[in-house]
Amino acid sequence: MTITLAVPSKGRLEELTRDWFAQRGLTITRPGGARSYLGAVEGVPDITVRFYPASEIARELIRGNIDLGVTGRDLIHETSEAGPAAVDFARNLGFGQADVVVAVPEAWIDVTHMHDLADVASDFRVRHGRWLRIATKYVTITRQHFARAGIAEYRIVESLGATEAAPASGVADIVVDITSTGSTLAANGLRVLDDGVMLQSEANLIVSKTADWSPERQAMLDALLARLP
Questions:
Q1: The whole model's pTM is what?
Q2: Per-residue model confidence as pLDDT tens digits over 48-87
Q3: Are the C-beta atoms of 70 and 93 separated by less than 8 Å?
Q4: Which one of 53, 110, 119, 135 has the lowest number of neighbouring Cβ atoms within 10 Å?
Q5: Half-sphere exposure of residue 190, counting CA atoms within 13 Å on the CB side?
Q6: Separation CA 15–CA 204 (nearest Å)
Q7: HSE of 69 in the Cβ direction (CA atoms, 13 Å)?
Q8: DSSP conformation class of 141
Q9: Per-residue DSSP letter, 97
Q10: What pLDDT, in 10s, does the model give residues 165-202?
Q11: Is 128 helix (H, G, I), strand (E, B) or coil?
Q12: Cβ distance 117 to 193 under 8 Å?
C-alpha cells in the first residue's frame, strides 16, 4: 500500500520542490532521468513519486487520481470552479509567489478600480461597437471574479502566448495575467487596478479530498505531513 506524491516535472519549480523536501529529510529521486515520470523518496517505500506538469497535477488532484502533490494555488482555482473544495492546501511552500491581476492600459487614467472598469465595460459597445476584450489564460478565475464585480459585458480572448502584449497588438483591451513584480506589465504600458489582485498564489503541498482515503492510507498521510513542518 502506497500513497502517490506528484512533483512538477521540470524547471525551477521541480528544483525548488525537491529542495524543499530535502531540507526536511526527504530526498526525492528520479532514477530514470529527466524523461522519466516515475520517482521515489529515499528510505520511504510507501510513497510513490510521479513527475507531472504543474497544470496536470492540479487536474489529477481534483479528480482524486493522485493523493497529494505540489502545484500553484492559481492552477487549482483555474482548473475547475469546484477545485478549491476538492483539495486541502496542506502547506505553503514559500516559493512561486505571484498574483493573478487585472491590468489596464496606462492611458486609462480614470480607471483605477473594478467599479470604474464596470462603467467602461457597460458602455464600451455603445462607444466602439463591440464588447470589452480581455486577454487571459485564466478563463475560470476571470469569469468568477468579474461576476462578483457585476461585470458581464465583455469577451474573453484566450491567450496562448505573451498575454501582456495583447493590448499593444490590438488583440485585446485589457488583460488578466499572473505577475510576481508587475515589471513586465509596466514594460508593456499596463497598470494593475488598485483592487485588481484577483488571487494571490504560491506553490503549495496539496492533498486531494477526492482520493480514496482508507484509514490505513490516512494514517500514512498523517505520518508524512508530520515530517513536513
A1: 0.92
A2: 999 999 999 999 999 999 999 999 999 999 999 999 999 9
A3: yes
A4: 110
A5: 29
A6: 14
A7: 35
A8: H
A9: -
A10: 999 999 999 999 999 998 999 999 999 999 999 999 99
A11: helix
A12: yes
User: What average pLDDT does range 30-53 have in this prediction?
Assistant: 90
Contact 50, 39 (CB under 8 A): yes
Q: Please check whether residue 176 is in contact with residue 102, taking contact to mean a CB–CB distance below 8 angstroms.
A: yes
Q: Which residue has the cell 524547471?
A: 11
- b vs e for 177-206, b when ≥16 Cβ sit within 10 Å of the residue's Cβ? bbbeeeeebeebebbbbeebebbebbbbbb
Q: How far is CA 1 from CA 47, 54, 83, 181, 213, in A?
A: 9, 25, 27, 44, 12
User: Three cell numbers at 115?
Assistant: 467599479
3-class DSSP state of 81 = coil
Distance CA 15, CA 215 (A): 32
Q: Do residues 229 and 24 touch, judged by C-beta distance below 8 A? A: yes
Written as nine digits, the cell of 144 is 468568477
| Cβ-Cβ contacts under 8 Å for 163 (sequence gap 6 or more) | 135, 136, 137, 175, 176, 177
CA distance 70 to 206: 6
- Are 39 and 31 in contact by the 8 Å Cβ rule? The answer is yes
d(C-alpha 119, C-alpha 128), whole Å: 14
Instruction: Please choose, from the candidates 117, 69, 104, 120, the residue with its C-alpha nearest in 3D space to the C-alpha of residue 90.
Output: 69
